[in-house]
Design goal:
This protein is α+β, with helices and mostly antiparallel strands. It contains 3 helices and 2 strands, in the order ββααα.
Length: 83
C-alpha cells in the first residue's frame, strides 16, 4: 500500500470548517510529512481518515460528515502542543 498524507488548516475567524490544503500519495505524501516535521507540525496517523480526506478537493472545507473525525485530530494536536 502506498503511503498517503493530507494537510489541514483551520482559521476559526475566517472559515466555518477546516480545509484540505495538501494531499497526495507516494512521494507527494512523503514531502507533506517532511514539511510537517521540519515545521514541528504534529502528525496524526489515521488510515480511515486519510481515505476520506483524499476525496476532498484541495482548498475546500471538509464536509459536515467529517467534522467529528477531524475534531478528534485537532483535539490530539491541542493536547500535544498545549495550544
Amino acid at each position: 500500500m502506498r503511503q498517503k498524507a493530507a494537510a489541514l488548516s483551520y482559521d476559526r475567524g475566517k472559515k466555518a470548517a477546516p480545509k484540505v490544503t495538501a494531499k497526495g500519495e507516494g512521494t507527494v505524501a512523503q514531502n507533506i510529512i517532511k514539511i510537517a516535521e521540519l515545521h514541528d507540525i504534529p502528525i496524526k496517523k489515521d488510515e480511515d481518515l486519510i481515505e476520506l480526506l483524499s476525496k476532498v478537493e484541495l482548498d475546500q472545507e471538509i464536509p459536515a460528515e467529517m467534522y467529528k473525525a477531524v475534531a478528534e485530530v485537532f483535539s490530539f494536536i491541542y493536547k500535544m502542543t498545549n495550544k
